[in-house]
Amino acid sequence: MRKILVSSCLFGGRIVRYDGADAPERDARFLRWKAEGRLVSVCPETFGGLPTPRSPAERIGERVITREGCDVTEAYARGANEALRLARLHDVAFAVMKTDSPSCGSRQIYDGSFENAKIPGQGLAAQYLRESGFVVFGEDELDSAEALLAEVERL
Length: 155
Ligand code: SF4
What we know:
35% helix, two-stranded antiparallel ribbon, alpha/beta, binds iron/sulfur cluster
């Protein structure tokens, strides 16, 4: 049975978001994968050493900066590397990561202005995973994730 890497905040009951909450995914397919024991959860930001709650941060080019102007790139990179390590360790079929996050976002991210504006882009962990050949979906792309899982398990 192939495993799937997921953002910890989507897993449910793991209080890891910057605002001290989770963001449990309730789609029936995700819940089935969870019940099957397929999900390997990672929160790149807390695994990188950041506390919960924490200051919101956004990518500005290659750096990640908090709203107060603190450069937290090193912690984000550490967490992104940990996500990659776990993906390799568990030979995951793909990843399902939280949309819009500066770590987990897979198609768009906030633009660095802290004005709630988004731009095309990806979070650092999603970037590291893709650069190493892993497919990364957002939690709003479970149709595609389900199709890929079926294909991978047919092989
Ligand atoms: Fe969720 Fe990823 Fe943010 Fe952690 S870093 S709270 S897993 S979106």
